[in-house]
Every structure is written in C-alpha cells, then in structure tokens.
Protein 1
Amino acid sequence: PKFYILRTSWVIGDGKNFVRTMMSLAKKDISATVVHDQIGRLTFTSELVRAINHLLVKNPAYGTYNVSNDGDSASWADITHEIFKCLGRDDLKVTDTTTAEYFAGKEGIAPRPLQSTLNLSKIQATDFKPTNWQEELKNYINNQ
C-alpha cells in the first residue's frame, strides 16, 4: 500500500534516443520522414528525477502518477521541426508520414498508441510544476 508508480512516455536521456537520432541526421545533412499521427510530449530523464525527488520529499498520497514534461502536445514530426530549428537547420525538410505507412511491411514492430499525452493534473496537485518540453529540448541539444 505504500508505493509510488510513475507512468511516463517518450523518454529522452543518455544513450540512443529520438532526439539524438534526429541530431545525427541533421549533422549529416539528411532530411527526415517522421510520423505525424502519434501525439504526446517528451519526458526528459531530468524531469523524472525531479518528480521522484518531489514525491519522496513532499510525501503526498501513495499511488500512480503520470510524469512527463509540460507544454503543448506535439507529433514526432513537430518535434523533429523543433530539433532542426534548435540546430539552425531549418533548411532540412521534415516529410510527414502516418504510423501505418512508416511501418508497412516491417515485422516485429511493437504497436504504438496514436495519443500518448499524459494528464499531469494529479502530480501537479502535489505542487510539482513540470518544465516545458520545448525549453528542456533546447537545453538538451545545447548540452550535447
């Protein structure tokens, strides 16, 4: 009965991840084809650490909390535009595709929900204030 479960999505941190993949494409002058029908918000690992620390220090009611960065929901294609913009690579094209088109003919692909935006109201009710994913994206890119 005494536990915290954190639900999250679209995690970005050390190691291989979507942002680093798009940064690598930009460095190689490669435009990207990216799904535009999956919608959510990025969750930076630093935000997860802040949320865990907040729960352990504030000790709110035990249970399940959604954690992601805050801000407007966006598609992976929208996020790619932001990445290229942060890198000063507005010259690179982002071509929209659907999830079905992108994975057509590929086997062993785990199904992905089209809507991944998490409701943050429960953790926000504990006075946790998630940071905006677009601001965290800029910080992440500037520190790579």
Note: The two ends are 40 Å apart (CA to CA).
Protein 2
Amino acid sequence: MPWSSLFQPVERLSAEQGLEDWYGRLLASLGGTPAPFELALVGGLRAATPGLAFLAGYQAALRVLWPAAPWTAGALCVTENRSTRPADMSTRIYGLYVSGRKDFVTAAECADWLLVAAREEAADESPRLALGVVRQGAPGVRIEALPALPLMPDIGHARLHLDQAQGERLAGDGWDDYVKPFRTLEDLHVLTAVTAWLSGVGRECAWPDPLLLRLQALLAGCAEVARQAPNAATTHLLLAGLFAEQQALAGELDAALAAGPAHWAGLWQRDQGLLRIAEAARSKRLEKARRIVAGC
C-alpha cells in the first residue's frame, strides 16, 4: 500500500466531463489496476467532492466483491420498492436471462456492468437469490435517470428496467456471497475514501497536527479491517470501532473546516450525511456480532 500518497501534494480530479470520465482518469493516474484499498484511499484523496470520494470507495468495494470484474465502473442493483429482502423482490433470473426492475442504482450513468440480485427458486421453494451480470446498453437493459438528491447531488442514481436481458450468472449464493457482505465492504471502503478526502483537505488547509494524525490513524485502521473477512463477527466489531472513531472527530472536523475556505466547509456540510447511510443496519450487525462473540 503506497502510504506516501497521503503526504504528497494532492492533484484533485473534478467531474465536469461526467463520472465515467472521472473514474477513467482516476484509474489512469493509478496505473490502471490498483488494489481495491488503494483505489479507495487515493480516489478519496484526489476527489474534488465527498460524493466523488464515495464513488471511489463504492467502486473499490465492488472490486472486492467481484475480483474478476472489468476495470470499467459498475453498480450493484438490489433495492426494489425500498426493500432489499429477497422475499420482496420480483426480479427473476432464468438461465442466462434476467427480467424485472431495480429502483435505486447508484452512479448508473457511469456503470458499464450491473450486478443484479434476482430470484431463481422454483414456485414451491423459499426465496433464493442469484447474482446476474448485465451490460448497460445491451438489449433489454434500460436505465431511467432519477432526480438528483440533496445528498451527493453529483452522484446520480437511476431505476433499472430489465426485459429478458441476457447476462451471466455468478457462482455462489446471491445473498450470502454477494448482497450480505457488500454492505460491510461498502461501509469500510467509503469510510476510507471519505477519511482520505478529509485528510487531503486538512493538509491543504494546514489543520492542527493532532487532527491530521488521528485521521491517518483511522486510515491505518481501515487498512487492517480491509484484510478481514466481511462476514465475520469480529470484522463488524472492528468496523464499528472505526465509525466510532470518525464520529468522535466530528467536533474537531467542523471547527477546522469552519476556520478554512468556505468551499470545503460547504461541501462537507452538504455531504457528511453519507457516512450515516445504513447506520441502522450497521447497528443491528454490531449487536448480532456482540452476541456471536459472547457465545449467546
């Protein structure tokens, strides 16, 4: 891991030409095939906004989830009618074909490939998920752009429509091997990228050394947790500790940002809520992890 990136001048990448162009330029600056944690860390450092840092962390998490993924941008498509429960899904996979609808696809505008959670059980069986891969622009694949949200408005989202779209079924169980671990992978790599973004802003604005050192320590903790199995109870305990450390810095971060350029403070004021996405789900995973570790 090239930790020296943290201490070098930051060359920020903006996204005037779109997210696909931004991601391509980020990969080019990294030599094309970075390790996922490096992608999250350096992507966060070079992001012009917290939303772009989120995108780097999201793409890094996808690469851990599917190591054989193409080096273009992708997206995981799970949510239907505000739910991610398999029993609430109607999207189906039949052999090589996928049909259905996904209601919230992150960064769909730049996603070349789409991982789609789809049911595959027979009529008399309990819901069972598979994960199919379809390509944007292929027959039967349609993206419906949705209005920008107040949080991270520079990262679009969309609805995905599939009508007998031909794809590939990934090996393994769609829920246990993909959907379930992805939330942990995304939480970790997005936390990494956003912390790196804050660290880069802090160095540029000459924040107090103790604050910068604590941000560096948080990133070091993220690197260690990235080495752990995402489904392990101990990983959830460690990840909860990292988020607690980040939250403990909130007051110092707000003060440091308020004392510097209004541009950075405004971006953080707008987008800092991205670290609270799925906070309730993290809390449930933490309580379950505690019970498992305690042997209850």
Note: The mean pLDDT is 96.
Protein 3
Amino acid sequence: WDALVPTMILQPIVENAYVHGISKSLAQGTITIKASIDGDTLCISICNAGCVPGSFEEAPRKQGVGIANVKARLQLHYGSRQDFTIQEVAPGDVTAVFQLPLEIDKSPSSDHAESLYAASSSDRG
C-alpha cells in the first residue's frame, strides 16, 4: 500500500489507454491496473483490452507529449534504475509496464485498515 510512485506518472498512461484505445472501439473494453513486487522492484502494468486490433501497430511512430513526459520524468527520478515499455501483447490488448525501484513510505498510510496493511507488509518479504 505504501510503495512510492511519482505523482501523476500513471494518469497520462491511463488517459492514453482510454483516448487512443478503448474509446475508438465499438466493443466493450476494460482498463486494468495491477501492481506487484518482485524483489526490490515495483512492477505496475496498465492494460487496455478491447481496443481496435492493430491500432497500436498502425499508430504513427512519433511519440506523444504524455508518453515523452512520463519517460523524461522517470529518467529524472530513477535514471537507469527504471524501465517503461508499451506494447500490443495480443490483438486489441495494449499493455504499459513500469518497473521502478521499490521505495516504501516511512509512515504507513492511515486510510487502510490495519489488517490490510499487515497483510500487504507480509507480501513484501
């Protein structure tokens, strides 16, 4: 619960998942955000399922302002200790993946029940 993530780093990617992905499809779509810990790495994935198949591949190769800003901010925060990728993992399913150094807030959040915090702490190893 208390892993640190740079402010507003996920918002442009979630917005892109909607604007450039599922909003262009007539079918039902979903945006899924997942976070996990792998050793000393925080892994966050944002998947938009249900966009027009192949639309990611056909998009112009020029980089949008939002993604360029995210990449620049990650570089400033973490240097080479981070990784950020976006790819079409299956037809119509595009996933963005952040791999960041795991940093835990020193003061546990007060907006979660103590039992949830205790359970999440045990997941950290």
Note: The CA atoms of residues 20 and 59 lie 9 Å apart.
